[in-house]
TrEMBL record:
UniProt protein name: Transmembrane emp24 domain-containing protein 7
Record domain GOLD: where: 44-126
GO CC terms, sorted: COPI-coated vesicle membrane; endoplasmic reticulum membrane; endoplasmic reticulum-Golgi intermediate compartment membrane; ER to Golgi transport vesicle membrane; Golgi apparatus
Membrane topology of the entry: Single-pass type I membrane protein
Keywords: Cytoplasmic vesicle, Endoplasmic reticulum, Glycoprotein, Golgi apparatus, Membrane, Protein transport, Signal, Transmembrane, Transmembrane helix, Transport
Residues annotated as transmembrane: 184-206
InterPro entries in the cross-refs: Emp24-like, GOLD_dom, GOLD_dom_sf
First-listed, main subcellular location of the protein, grouped into a coarse class: membrane
PANTHER family listed in its UniProt record: TRANSMEMBRANE EMP24 DOMAIN-CONTAINING PROTEIN
Source species of the chain: Atrichornis clamosus
């Protein structure tokens, strides 16, 4: 997972082949955005979403790389009322129902960091997935084929969530491993320099012990 790579939105399932399109059509109806972006030090990044009143929304985020893996998050409604605010969080999830129509804003801030940039992932889901086979104007229960399609659809959604989760864990683990490797390399170089300085100092010290020291005697005549 590249730090500048954006996770594909779930709407991309709409481009699947016809055989898989039926099992993924519900993911196309509910809006969802999954983005991974870099947040520089002393910076703030905001995103905006038009939401209708009564729509259920969920915001999930996680810091993948950088510093102590923490970031400030703030969510506001169209009137500027703060719905959610957390400081220096590594990851969190917040679910709310829109109280009115308008543009909702959520921001991620790294202004408390002076030299460390972060890589942040967030998933913003707007609305619930509609049923795969609407029950309107139906007088019979789901057929065996339709029930199988529903089960496959739910399993595919779980697979997507697990894949996203493990991609994030893998990216975070790689970042920590690279950071640890860099620290070990610097520590090894420092130890080598210290050993070299100590060895040279010991050589000169031992040499001073065995070097001839000439003493001068001065006689004072009466």
């Amino acid at each position: 997972l590249s730090p500048r790579l954006a996770m594909p939105p779930r709407g991309s399932w709409c481009s699947l082949p016809p055989l898989l399109l039926v099992a993924a059509m519900a993911a196309c109806a509910a809006r969802a955005s999954e983005i991974t972006f870099e947040l520089p030090d002393n910076a703030k990044q905001c995103f905006y979403e038009e939401i209708a009143q009564g729509t259920k929304c969920t915001l999930e985020f996680q810091v993948i790389t950088g510093g102590h893996y923490d970031v400030d998050c703030r969510l506001e409604d169209p009137d500027g009322i703060v719905l959610y605010k957390e400081m220096k969080k590594q990851y969190d999830s917040f679910t709310f129902t829109a109280s009115r129509n308008g543009t909702y804003k959520f921001c991620f801030s790294n202004e408390f960091s002076t030299f460390t940039h972060k890589t942040v992932y967030f998933d913003f889901q707007v609305g619930d997935d509609p049923p795969l086979f609407p029950s309107e104007n139906r007088v019979t229960a789901l057929t065996q084929m339709e029930s199988a399609c529903v089960s496959i659809h739910e399993a595919l959604k779980s697979v997507i969530d697990y894949q996203t989760h493990f991609r994030l864990r893998e990216a975070q683990g790689r970042s920590r491993a690279e950071d640890l490797n860099t620290r070990v390399a610097y520590w090894s170089i420092g130890e080598a320099i210290i050993l070299l300085v100590v060895s040279i100092g010991q050589v000169f010290l031992l040499k001073s012990f065995f070097s001839d020291k000439r003493t001068t005697t001065t006689r004072v005549g009466s």
